[in-house]
Amino acid sequence: MLVDEVMTGEVKFLNPDQTISDAVLELAKHGISGAPVVDKSGQLVGIITEKDILNAVKNTGKKLEMVYPSLSMVSVTFIETMEEKETIEAFKEIANTKVNKIMTKGVTTVQSGSKLALIVNLIILKGVNRIPVMDGGKVIGIVSRADIIQGLAKSNILK
Q: What CATH superfamily classification does 3-56+92-158 receive?
């Protein structure tokens, strides 16, 4: 089986100058968990995923607290503690950040016509959920873990 047989051909692209807020809206609107990021000439420059966005949301912050009574007679002692922030507040802090600041660069890709075994091995080895399919230097599709499972379900091997 080839990647072309299971790939999603209608790819939703994002551009590096969009905000993270825009990216979240686009991912939610299309029901996808990640999308390739292409520049104005259509060249792949990265990929942005739910994981990238959640990693950028800092819902904990460091805070200094004075230890009382101080363990030292000479100085005041402080300890660093973690303070939980609301997720919405944490997201607001990054909402206007550009996609290119948090996207994954150096994206693993496969060429059109590659065997499905190659992409399965890459997904496992790289620990990613999706890999863009390239032809002539342009993204022509994307294969996700779900695409592979659906492709296997449609194949004759399960009958």
A: CBS-domain (3.10.580.10)
